[in-house]
Request: fold
Amino acid sequence: MKTHPEAKTPDAPETIIAEATPSGHAGISVVRLSGANALAIAQGVVGPISKPRHAYFRSFKTSTGDTFDQGLVLYFKAPNSFTGEDVVEFQGHGGPIVVHSLIQTCVEGGARMARPGEFSERSFLNDKMDLVQLEAVADLIASASEQAAKSALGSLTGIFSKAVNALVSAVTELRIYIEASIDFPEEEIDFLSEPFVLERTTMIEAQLEEILKQAEQGRRLQAGLSIALVGSPNAGKSSVLNRFSGQDSAIVTAVPGTTRDVIREQLVLDGYPIQIADTAGIREAADEIEREGIARSYQTALMADLSLWIIDVTTLDLPRLNLSRNVLERHLVAAQAALFQDDAPIKRLIVLNKMDLLPEIMQNQLSDLLVRDAHIFMVSAKTGRGWDDLASGIKAMAGVSEDSESLFSARTRHIVALTEAAQHLAEAKNSLITGLPGEFMAEDLKRAQVALGEITGQVTSDDLLGKIFSSFCIGK
Ligand SMILES: Nc1nc2c(ncn2[C@@H]2O[C@H](COP(=O)(O)OP(=O)(O)OP(=O)(O)O)[C@@H](O)[C@H]2O)c(=O)[nH]1
Ligand SMILES: [Mg+2]
Reply:
C-alpha cells in the first residue's frame, strides 16, 4: 500500500519548491511550487490569484515589497495537477539571481526546497501516475533518439502499465479460483483438473512472454548499444569510426599504430542510439604507450555489447581463384589466432574492410560466398560500400528488427520483475501438472502477482521507491 513518507505527522505534507527548468541563463525559467500552502505562498509573491489554469501576468515581489521580476503565474488546483496537490508555476526570466530571489521568497513564506524526484514521488503517492509512467518521464527527457523518445511516450501514456495491469488481473483471477478450491477440500481435485485452469495458466504465460519480449526491445532502445571496433593495426578501424560518425573524429594515417587512446562517439543509427569506440590496433607493441593502448582495446571489447572485428581484407591472403567457405574460414581462424588469445565469449561481427582494393574477380567470389551471411560483412570505409548491410547486421545483433517498433520503453528493473513473474508462473503450472495440492499453485501465483505489482508500484518496498526517486533530478 502507498504511504506518504510524511504521513506519520497529522499535518499535510510540506509545500515544496524547485526550479523545473535547467538552471542557468535562459529566456524564461519555470519554478514549481506544490503542496497545501502553494496558493497562499504564491499570493505572498504575486498578489491575489484564484482562477485555476489561468495565466496571470504579475510582478514578483519579495516579502518587503521589492519587485525583483515579472512574468506569468499559473495555478493548478488539486487534484488536477502534476503532483495531485495544489501547484503554482512561476514563469519568470531565466537568470540564476532572479530564480534564487523567487525561491528564497517562497521559502520565507513557508515552502521548503524539494528533494530530487519529490514532485514525481508525490504524483505517484497521489495516484496521478504509476512508477512505469514516472520512469518514462525521465526516459523521455533522457532519450538519445527519436525512436527511444517515441517508446518512452508509449510508457508515459500508459501502454506498458495497461499491459502489466491486465496480466495482474488475469493472475489474480486465477489465484482467487484456486484459493476458493482450497476452501472446499472435497472438491479440490475437481476444481484443479478443470481443463480451463491449465488453459488459463498457459495463456497468461504466453501473454507474459510477449510483454517481456517487447519490454526487452524497449529497454535496448533506451539504453542503446555499445560497439567496440577492434583488429590489427591499419585495418581501417578509425576509418570505420569516421564513416559511421560522418566526420573526422579519429586520426587516420597509413602508419600502423596510429590510434592509441580509445576514441568514443555517440551516434544514432536509423533512430537507434549507439556508442561506438575506436581502439588501438592489436599487435606486439613497440613501446609502453602502445602497450597501454592495446590493453585498453581488450578492455573496451570486453565491456562492449558488440565488437566489430575490422580486417584489412587484403591481408587475409585469400587465393585468387576457387575461394570456398572452408578456405575463407581457415584464413579467418589464422588471422584470429594472431589477435585474440582465446575465443572470448563476446558478441562479434566480422567486417572485411578495404574491399575496394581486391581484384574484381575476388570481390565477386566473396560476394557469392557471403550473400545472406549474418556475421561477415564486406565493406569499404573509403567508398562506403556495404554500409547499409552492416548497419542492418548491427541492428539484428542488437535485437532491433527493421520493422518492429517498440511500443513502450522499459528498464532493467522491469525486465527483472517480468522474468521473475514468468518463473513463478512456470512453477505454478508445474505444481498444477504434477498434481500438488492447490496451496502450492496459489502460492506460486501470489509470487507472480507480487513481482508484476512491483513494476507499476502496486506493491513496492520503501527501499525501491527511494532508489527510483532519488535517481531523478531536483525539480522533477
Ligand atoms: N583503399 C582503402 N583504404 C582504406 C580503407 N579503410 C582505411 N584505409 C586506409 O588504411 C590506412 C589505415 O586506416 P586507419 O583507419 O588509420 O586504420 P586503423 O585500423 O585505425 O589503424 P591503427 O589506428 O593504426 O590501428 C589509412 O591509410 C586509410 O586511408 C578502405 O576501405 N579502402
Ligand atoms: Mg586507428
Q: What stands out?
A: The CA atoms of residues 229 and 308 lie 5 Å apart. Residues 136-220+409-457 form a domain with the Four Helix Bundle (Hemerythrin (Met), subunit A) fold (CATH 1.20.120.430).
